[in-house]
Inverse folding.
């Protein structure tokens, strides 16, 4: 993968499954996405994160060939993605955030239609319907009308619809938004297995902990451009100043908390809310030990002291992106 | 319907084949019961043979059949397309292996599936009535009628799919065309013989006039034209399905439509037989007036390839500006609106000339010869300038916005209609009543329509000055296009 504005870590490789070159999408006079470059191979799972309006959905829709592009190009397995190039478009499975379905037919009929739309053989369609219904916990709903399904079930059905034709490139826009906790666990396992089976996936989500678990790569987007892109380890560990957040809980609120914290050098982003205190400080066991000693020596009744692990959330916050631009 | 994915799923949405079979069964039972009740009620008043009743019932039964078929099928297509857009399933379709032609075929065959099945039941009922009513000749009548009506039906339904996909399911055209026809407006259509020829199948009046060789020839030509137009609309709909921003008519398809429309117009002029008119002044039925009324819609259709050329060129310029790599690898610009205007004019007048010389020479020759060379030259010049002006405006509009529909309407109002209104307003204001030998002022000729009326009919007025104004407007439109930055 090759980051658009900040290609920090990625080295493009040969024989790519997906190649996006300098992609730009305009909505009339507004540029929704620009300078988007990406190269993906089989087995890559890219997580797109960013605030609302960052351009994540636009990027996915443009890659899926559903939006006109103002500049650049998208190639899947070397073939240009464009209207009319049905063979290439059929290699892309795209699940939008709002599940598109026919409400008045049953789950089974809907999936059968999808199979027919991809010109699959009847026996294969039935086999795959069986597999995906079971995999996505929808077997007992196969005869139910789609309008009777909950949002989470519809979300799972959309995922089943996307995966049924076995596309090479899978684009999932907020796929876990309507899923219950158990569904999310199962879904994470499904994505990991798809990744391991050699698919290339792009997943947009605000649930960063999930992304951390199954993604191989992360792209942080804002204002229609990629701010940071690389492997999960690269993005997570990409802090230059080696700092992290600490959460402290006092056994009782202390009036001198602010004064004690002010006396400890190197603290930043201090927040005091009654017994709860959080701030940014140097990362590492030695730094944590020094810090804890300073707090206890200062007379603060420390009941709990936690150094937050550097995760995607930290990486995201470090970019300085806070809200919709 | 059964192998096509969209056709298949539309049938499933309607409840599947079993449900449809039940509906058709109930409908047939209901229809037959109504007929029996009518028959019982009829013989209560006066003795009526079953044969006579059946013969009388044929016509209303046929009207019901055609009504359900045309209105029902059109509505079903509109509803299916609208559903796909509102549910966003259209996005899902576009992301599958469904091709544009397959999708258009699915909408054509699957969406009105219920209507087709009801029509089959209606045909059976009509067939039964025909056999009861007139056992000697009528066996083939309902079937033959269906074959004849299948052509305009195909043309209208494919146009519905095209319009539906372009308007996100908001519009269809069949109901308007059918109502226009069945309200007896064919007299109005006779002003434009090509349109009358195209719609002649649907005219009850023509059927009543009896079957003559001319009648059969008209039917044949009309059916051929309808089928060819259906194919054109079908291909355009298939293109439009691919993505909202893809123009339905590419250059080839737009020129095909223009050539076809011109051919229909030219053949219409040749085949039209003058007869007594019941609508409007008699002059409207004259050959020169028919030429004017043929050239006007052709000029509008010619704007399709011109608009496409303008859009393609602005897209190309925009892409070059925004995409350095694209600019580096593409050097040859696509043909712009200016050259396309000449090509469109050549196609229209080339086909008109060819038809008058070879295809229908015996009928149209006199008309064109009577017009004279200067009149024809003025007519062609006005046509060309109208295209260039429209092209310039389209180029300017497409430079700033993705759609140019509003600029087309504005263009027609300002450059075609306003000069005529100004002229008529001036006549009213000056209080001079038109008398024999009356001449319009130069304002009348400033509109292309005015120029064609002056050139092709016996209406008098200065052409050259109006043409000068049209030339000036065209030059301004070109300059505007040149200055615009996509």
């Amino acid at each position: 993968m090759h980051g658009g504005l900040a290609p920090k870590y990625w080295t493009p490789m040969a024989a790519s499954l997906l190649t996006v070159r300098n992609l730009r999408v305009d909505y009339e006079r507004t540029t929704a996405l620009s300078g988007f470059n990406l190269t993906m191979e089989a087995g890559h799972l890219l997580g797109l994160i960013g605030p609302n309006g960052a351009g994540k959905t636009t990027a996915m829709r443009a890659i899926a060939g559903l939006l006109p592009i103002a500049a650049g190009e998208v190639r899947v397995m070397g073939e240009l993605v464009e209207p009319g190039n049905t063979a290439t478009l059929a290699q892309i499975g795209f699940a939008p955030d709002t599940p598109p379905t026919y409400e008045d037919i049953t789950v089974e009929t809907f999936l059968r239609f999808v199979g027919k739309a991809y010109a699959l053989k009847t026996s294969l369609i039935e086999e795959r319907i069986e597999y995906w219904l079971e995999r996505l916990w929808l077997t007992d709903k196969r005869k139910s009308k789609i309008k009777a399904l909950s949002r989470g079930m519809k979300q799972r059905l959309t995922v089943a619809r996307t995966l049924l034709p076995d596309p090479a490139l899978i684009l999932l826009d907020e796929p876990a938004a309507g899923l219950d906790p158990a569904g999310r666990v199962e879904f994470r396992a499904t994505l990991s297995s798809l990744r391991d089976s050699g698919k290339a996936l792009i997943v947009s989500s605000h649930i960063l902990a999930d992304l951390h678990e199954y993604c191989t790569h992360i792209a942080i987007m804002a204002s229609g451009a990629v701010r940071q892109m690389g492997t999960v380890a690269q993005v997570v560990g990409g802090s230059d100043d080696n700092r992290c957040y600490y959460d402290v809980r006092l056994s009782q609120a202390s009036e001198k908390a602010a004064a004690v914290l002010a006396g400890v050098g190197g603290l930043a982003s201090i927040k005091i809310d009654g017994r709860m205190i959080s701030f940014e400080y140097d990362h590492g066991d030695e730094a944590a030990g020094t810090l804890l000693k300073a707090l206890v020596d200062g007379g603060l009744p420390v009941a709990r002291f936690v150094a937050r692990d550097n995760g995607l959330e930290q990486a995201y916050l470090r970019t300085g992106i806070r809200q919709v631009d | 319907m059964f192998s096509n994915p969209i056709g298949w799923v539309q049938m499933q949405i309607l409840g599947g084949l079993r449900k449809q079979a039940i509906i058709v069964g109930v409908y047939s039972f209901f229809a037959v019961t109504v007929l029996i009740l009518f028959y019982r009620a009829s013989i209560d008043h006066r003795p009526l043979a079953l044969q006579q009743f059946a013969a009388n019932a044929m016509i209303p039964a046929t009207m019901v059949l055609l009504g359900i078929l045309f209105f029902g099928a059109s509505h079903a297509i509109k509803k299916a397309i609208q559903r796909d857009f509102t549910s966003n399933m259209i996005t899902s379709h576009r992301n599958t292996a469904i091709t544009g032609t397959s999708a258009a075929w699915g909408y054509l065959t699957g969406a009105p599936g219920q209507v087709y099945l009801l029509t089959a039941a209606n045909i059976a009922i009509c067939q039964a009535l025909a056999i009861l009513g007139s056992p000697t000749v009528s066996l083939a009548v309902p079937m033959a009628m269906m074959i004849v009506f299948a052509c305009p039906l195909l043309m209208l339904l494919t146009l519905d799919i095209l319009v539906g996909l372009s308007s996100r399911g908001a519009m269809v055209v069949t109901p308007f065309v059918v109502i226009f026809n069945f309200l007896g407006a064919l007299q109005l259509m006779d002003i434009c013989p090509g349109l009358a020829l195209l719609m002649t199948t649907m005219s009850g009046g023509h059927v009543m006039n009896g079957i003559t060789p001319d009648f059969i020839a008209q039917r044949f030509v009309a059916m051929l034209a309808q089928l060819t137009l259906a194919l054109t609309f079908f291909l355009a709909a298939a293109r439009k399905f691919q993505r909202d921003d893809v123009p339905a008519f590419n250059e080839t398809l737009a020129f095909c439509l223009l050539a076809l429309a011109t051919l229909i117009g030219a053949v219409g002029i040749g085949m039209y037989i003058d007869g007594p008119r019941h609508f409007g002044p008699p002059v409207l039925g004259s050959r020169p007036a028919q030429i004017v009324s043929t050239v006007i819609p052709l000029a509008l259709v010619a704007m399709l390839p011109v608009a496409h050329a303008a859009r393609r060129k602005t897209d190309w310029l925009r892409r070059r500006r925004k995409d350095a790599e694209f600019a580096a690898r593409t050097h040859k610009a696509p043909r712009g609106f200016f050259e396309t205007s000449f090509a469109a004019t050549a196609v229209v007048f080339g086909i008109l000339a060819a038809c008058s010389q070879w295809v229908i020479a015996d009928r149209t020759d006199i008309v064109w010869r009577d017009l004279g060379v200067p009149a024809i030259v003025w007519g062609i010049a006005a046509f060309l300038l109208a295209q260039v002006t429209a092209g310039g405006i389209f180029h300017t509009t497409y430079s700033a916005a993705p759609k140019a529909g509003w600029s087309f309407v504005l263009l027609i109002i300002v450059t075609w209609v306003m000069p005529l209104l100004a002229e008529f307003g001036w006549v009213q204001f000056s209080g001079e009543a038109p008398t024999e030998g009356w001449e319009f002022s130069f304002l009348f000729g400033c509109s292309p329509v005015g120029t064609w009326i002056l050139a092709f009919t016996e209406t008098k007025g200065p052409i050259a000055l109006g043409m000068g104004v049209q030339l000036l407007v065209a030059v301004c439109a070109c300059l505007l296009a040149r200055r615009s930055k996509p």
